[in-house]
Specification:
By secondary structure, the protein is an alpha/beta fold. It has a single domain, classed as Rossmann fold (3-Layer(aba) Sandwich). The chain has seven helices and eight strands. The chain has a six-stranded mixed beta sheet with strand order 1-2-8-7-3-4, with helices on both faces. Strands 5-6 form a two-stranded antiparallel sheet.
Amino acid sequence: MLPEIPKKLCRIDDSTRAQHFFLDEADRCFYIWEYAARKGYSFSPSNQLISNLKIEPSQIAKSPGRNRYKQQAISHSAAALRKLIGRATAEGPSTFIPVPGSKALDDADYDDRLIRVLQLTFENWNVDFRSLLKVTASTEADHKSAARLSFDELRALTRLKTATRTPLKPRVIVVDDVLNSGKHFKVAQSVITESFPDADVRGLFLARCVRNNVADEFDAIDDV
């Protein structure tokens, strides 16, 4: 079962910001669904979608049938973004940049799921969509590791793929699948504004992670 597409995007505000402790009041972040921490695949349609979206290439290699579920999650995510952003907004003064996953480009488990989601979202539209960010070394995904990278460690690994002379549009939308602590968004924001200091960087997430208590964060699916 796929999650219903809501009528509009939700925004992180004063009532939810503290759950994503890397964010500050100046950050403008939006999301579609909620992912319940520690509730597993079967808890809700949105939990199922996020779990399927994150199926790794190595898992598909071992069990090719799982690719159908990943593709379904990619297609539904794109349909939701396409509906909620709308063509006029997408083609406006915005550059869309996906957050890189935890694996380097030459890793067998490198996953381009967000690139594929955005390609479908903006199909046949005139949108400034750029896959500009990369990690320079593979790491364990946060949701699989007991020793997560700190902000500084992740920042040191995150780079622009290539130097670009083409200016970004005034509003830069960083797109990720799940907002947990906000660390990955803030790293992407830091890398982008280092090269483009005038950029108004905002966050757009398929889901935000919700939890019953602080301890749940350490078992939640993180941003990548």
